[in-house]
Amino acid sequence: MSKIILSMDTMVLKEIPLTKERITIGRKPHNDIQIDNLAISGEHAVVVTILNDSFLEDLESTNGTFVNGQAVKKHFLQNGDVIELGKYRLKYVNEAAPQTATPDFEKTMVLRPDMLRKTADQIENKGLGDTQVGLKTAVHAAVPPPTQAGGVPPAAPAATPPQLAAIQILSGANAGKEMDLTKTLTTLGKPGVQVAVIARRPHGYFITHVEGAQFPVVDGITLEANKPHQLKDHDIVELAGIKMEFFFKV
User: Fold this and answer.
1) Tens-place pLDDT, residues 183-221
2) Distances from the Cα of 206 to the Cαs of 162, 163, 181, 191, 214, in angstroms?
3) Conformational region of residue 241, where left means phi above 0, alpha means psi within -120 to 50, and beta covers everything else
4) pTM (2 decimals)?
5) What pLDDT, on a 0 to 100 scale, did the predictor assign at position 155?
6) pLDDT value for 63
7) Given the DSSP bridges, would you call strands 221-222 and 242-248 parallel, antiparallel or unpaired?
8) 148 contacts 154 by C-beta, under 8 angstroms
């Protein structure tokens, strides 16, 4: 479980477990973390936690929000990050986070190395070019649902997870490597530069910008702030200087 340790100077004041999806920080009493100091805005910042990932966002505060000495508007928190608000320090601790960053993807993609692999399809289809991967597709005939006695169709089945999808790196030193999107939330990018998340939902996969002045580009279209974009088969995503292809696995 992740938590925030609030301190001033060298004195620890409080430990706050991040058990809620949204934790607000500010001077007003209604905030989850209240800091009664004039240097802190009434509603200064918010920490949003989804599964094991937490994101910090400045709420247009007067004096700004700093992480490890740098001013931020949005920031993907990493274990050990220190949020600075005036004289106060809030250390982010995530015991589930890996201790070291993955060296793969030129230190750009935040991915576990055990999830990176080359598939047999990639090797067989080398002749298709550096930026495309041959994919076998299955076409299923549309069959109307069976009906029960009296012509009443059966009840709709419960929602099921979407078809398994993956991303394949198309540029850079790791071109050709592939990662299955099996997690509910997959974080991509380089913290401090550009970060996005791909959410796996019952009705599809959605990519959302999290951090960075530049926004991800999907098939030549720049994403909008705080607006999830549903990914389609063979979409090309550009993120942190790397091109990748999203596709559904057959």
Assistant:
1) 877 888 877 778 888 888 888 899 988 888 888 999 999
2) 11, 13, 11, 20, 18
3) left
4) 0.50
5) 53
6) 92
7) unpaired
8) yes
> Following DSSP, what letter does each residue of 121-161 receive, concatenated?
HHHHTGGG-TT------------PPP--GGGPPPPPPPP-P
249 CB neighbour count, 10 Å cutoff: 14
Residue 60 φ then ψ, to 5°: 55, 45
Tokens of 136: 């076998």
DSSP letter at 120? H
State how far the Cα of 246 lies from the Cα of 237, in Å rounded to an integer: 7
Q: Could you tell me which of 64, 59, 67 has the C-alpha nearest to residue 4?
A: 67
Confidence at 74, pLDDT banded by 50, 70, 90: confident
77 near 18, Cβ under 8 Å? no
Q: Which helix (H) or strand (E) holds 85?
A: strand 82-85
Which helix or strand (DSSP H or E) is residue 190 part of?
A: strand 185-190
- The phi and psi torsions of 131 (rounded to 5 degrees) equal -110, 10
The residue to which tokens 């970060």 are assigned: 195
Residue 220: exposed, middle, or buried by beta-carbon count in 10 A (0-12, 13-18, 19+)? exposed
Residue indicated by tokens 């076998």: 136
Determine how β-strand 217-218 pairs with β-strand 204-211: unpaired
3-state secondary structure of 17: strand
Structure tokens at 155: 């009840």
